[in-house]
Design brief:
With 586 residues, the protein is an alpha/beta fold. The chain has 2 domains: 407 residues, Radical SAM ThiC family, central domain (TIM Barrel, Alpha-Beta Barrel), CATH 3.20.20; 42 residues. It contains 20 helices and 17 strands. Helix 3 packs across helix 4, helix 5 packs parallel to helix 15 and helix 13 packs across helix 14. The chain is globular, with a radius of gyration of 27 Å. The N terminus is likely disordered.
Amino acid sequence: MKEKKDVLSNQTLQASFDGSRKVYEQGSRPDILVPKREIMLSNTVTQAGDIQNEPIRVYDTSGPYTDENAHIDVTRGLKRLKATWIEERGDTESYEGRHVKPEDNGYRSKGKEPFHAVHTDFHHVPLRAKKGTCVTQMHYAKKGIITPEMEFIAIREQLSPEFVREEVASGRAVIPANINHPESEPMIIGKNFHVKINANIGNSAVTSSIEEEVEKMTWAIRWGADTMMDLSTGKDIHTTREWIIRNCPVPVGTVPIYQALEKVNGVAEDLTWDVYRDTLIEQAEQGVDYFTIHAGVLLRYIPLTVDRVTGIVSRGGAIMARWCLAHHQENFLYTHFEEICEIMKTYDIAFSLGDGLRPGSIADANDEAQFAELKTLGELTEIAWKHDVQVMIEGPGHVPMDKIKENVDRQVEICKEAPFYTLGPLTTDIAPGYDHITSAIGAAMIGWYGTAMLCYVTPKEHLGLPNKEDVREGVIAYKIAAHAADLAKGHPAAQKRDDALSKARFEFRWRDQFHLSLDPEKALAFHDETLPAEGAKTAHFCSMCGPKFCSMKISHDIRNQSDEVKKEMEKKAKEFISQGSQIYQS
């Protein structure tokens, strides 16, 4: 842990992309400053002179890490962006909170946990709702209040604040915004907004460290992750999460059952409601913005999975199924759901109702177990909404393309249009090492049909814990899928970037092509593998076709010839008129 201050020593992570700069659009008050990435474009060169191309502003998830004027110290955490907004509402109170115990980090006794070795200046004092109040964004929206968070989102999405409020009030969209995570920049998840992507990070019992996970987080948001999920299952779970949240400008989600299981030494049968409740409050006080809770895995549904090819593949689902069978009792997450709602609304934590019975293979897609659980998730959604708690619904999984739309149609009907959040889905099972591709195919389709957020899959899926480069590959694959879905849905701001890049490509403005791409560094590297000279950045060809066979160069030649023909035709027309418009001259 001694190298914690060096986590972000890589200056690449603290600078904007080449040809870009961080800009801010101000809202109705000085402290509503919405970040955008502004991509500068070069001029279009024509025979008549240069034509200026205006910069393109795009959605930015990287937080202050790409702001050259920001000072980042991970031992202090990010600026508390929303603290004033939360305080102004007057419905929260600070309190001491629970004390961190060795078992929170997976240790059985004091003195073994290493996290006290590194000094931090987080100074995080937890907040909660005052007695008798509700502090959720859904509650404010239902009361007709447009919060600063909603205005911030409206500017980000290029939509009206009132539209944002209506979508949140109806339950069609969620704003994950725990009052104890003031460092995060407001964002929204809903089918009528940009399709979002989530990136999973977290250590395991066999590999990774806190330093690596913090670096993965900054890496993922740089490439476009809209939310992060910390799925740590090894030691130092509490501390890893604290470092991530205090330094994360996007919402953070978790699966609390993972840490609860660590507290009972990995024995699912020993889980209790009290252990789980304590874990919820622990994570709520830290600032987790949404919880995946597998409350739909009911005792009577477990036999439906027996004949599956891959059984129960959800870790949380398998844990709860084992507990139910061991005690022959109903899932305690289901029986205590109202109590969970009380905790959620005390901190404004959104439900991500987990699909513990999701299909883990193409053969199991859209089966009875999957849809039985979905029906229960629909019932739980309505209970949460009565408490003004925000809800999104998790979805599969492994689904062939012909069965994807049915998943969306059923979810919309059963869950009353609560946002759908899916893992892929993977459209085939035969490509280990390439599952970021097999799943991005399904993700693009399900996003087009109305899914609000896509959980990324990396090339390491089913094979091992992803490293930094795997995270990058997964995020980029899913940014492609999400953007393709935005285009198909007709999001008003989606096509501007495509049009700008297409124009740059046709005009051989190579630098602009690189800067406008989702992965500028890779685009530049691929180009320079064969044409590294600076002069090649203005050449009217690439190494694929060369100067003689480039279709766009030929198109330019045709266009220039057409211009010459047109000018000659206009000249002849003028001559014709000047000669009296006579077809035959006497």
